[in-house]
Amino acid sequence: EKELVGTGANAELVEAIRHKSPKTTLISTPTPTPVPTPISTPIPTPPVPDAAFYQKRAGEHLFNKKYDLAVPEYTKVIELDSKDAANYLNRGLAFFNLKNYDLAIADYDKAIELAPKESMVYFNRGDLHEKMGNLQKAIGDYKKAVELDAANEPAKSNLQRLQAEQAKTLPKTPGKETVSASASAPPSAQQIVNVGPLNSLAVKLAMPVYTAFERQRNIEGLVTVQVTLDEKGKVISAKATVGHPMLRLTSEEAARNSKFKPLLVKNQAVKATGFINYNFKAS
């Protein structure tokens, strides 16, 4: 337009060109709205199972007589806690019931090494020696069990029985100390049979009292009570051998309040010994 005016173009021509010229429209490009990046929520990592976790499962298997399942669980417990004699004792009981006697003896030996003053460990090893025919070793273990705990009725009874049998055989075989006993003969009324878990004889299992005080302080874990029954199934002794000291008395009381039927061997009622497991969980 300025060029036309400068060259002397007619004003009407300049005005006509002005009206015909296209108008430039500025189009603004919108600024893209930023898309928020989603924040991923971290997935919590489950806690790594500890010895108590495997011990609980092992105890349940042992109590339910699933000995083949109890052994690997106790093995895992021992890998995590190799200083607790109770784990070797209980795995030994599982091996005993699976008739893996050599492995059972090895576990009982280790339990005695870790807890040399625990009477029931000697009783269990003595019971195994007797079943293997090692009667002198059985007598030695029963004696040690009674020496450590004069109230250990199973050990006292089995010791008296073996000594009585030995006294009968000694005059017939002078110079020999071996006791011969017929495996087919029914147990005497004085014999106490080790049955392991007592759930098969239980008519009613009383539960121990678990106080709020103990829960609040996370006093928990497995408690094993060794129980002895007379020929009528009545509890004549109950002693906790494994577990937190503050949970033992209530567990023993629960065992005493439980009801059992008599153990019959060859249609004869006999004394029996075995254990009950109580698992205390604070939460």
Task: Give the helix/strand layout.
Layout: H1 2-6, H2 11-20, H3 51-63, H4 67-80, H5 85-97, H6 101-114, H7 119-131, H8 135-148, H9 153-169, E1 192-197, E2 202-204, H10 212-216, E3 221-229, E4 235-242, H11 245-256, E5 259-260, E6 263-265, E7 268-280
Parallel strand pairs: 1-7
Antiparallel strand pairs: 2-5, 3-4, 3-7, 6-7
Helix pairs in contact: 3-4, 4-5, 5-6, 6-7, 7-8, 8-9
Structure description:
By secondary structure, the protein is an alpha+beta fold. It has a domain at 187-283: 2-Layer Sandwich (TolA/TonB C-terminal domain). It is 46% helix and 16% strand. The protein is built from 11 helices and 7 strands. The chain has helices spanning 2-6, 11-20, 51-63, 67-80, 85-97, 101-114, 119-131, 135-148, 153-169, 212-216, 245-256, and strands spanning 192-197, 202-204, 221-229, 235-242, 259-260, 263-265, 268-280. The strands form 2 sheets. Strands 1, 3, 4, 6 and 7 form a 5-stranded mixed β-sheet that branches. It has a two-stranded antiparallel sheet with strand order 2-5. Strand 6 and strand 7 (268-280) form a beta hairpin.
Uncertain residue ranges: 175-189
Q: CATH H-level name of the domain at 187-283... which superfamily?
A: TonB
Secondary-structure arrangement, i.e. CATH architecture of the domain at 187-283: 2-Layer Sandwich
Number of strands: 7
Mean pLDDT: 83
Shape: elongated
Q: SSE order, as H and E?
A: HHHHHHHHHEEHEEHEEE
CATH class of the domain at 187-283: Alpha Beta
Beta-strand content: 15-25%
**Terminal CA distance:** 92 Å
Count of alpha and pi helical runs: 11
Main beta sheet: strand number and arrangement? 5 strands, mixed
At CATH level 3, the topology of the domain at 187-283 is: TolA/TonB C-terminal domain
Radius of gyration, in angstroms, nearest whole number: 40 Å
- Which structural category do the helix and sheet elements fall into? alpha+beta
Question: Portion of residues in helices?
Answer: 40-55%
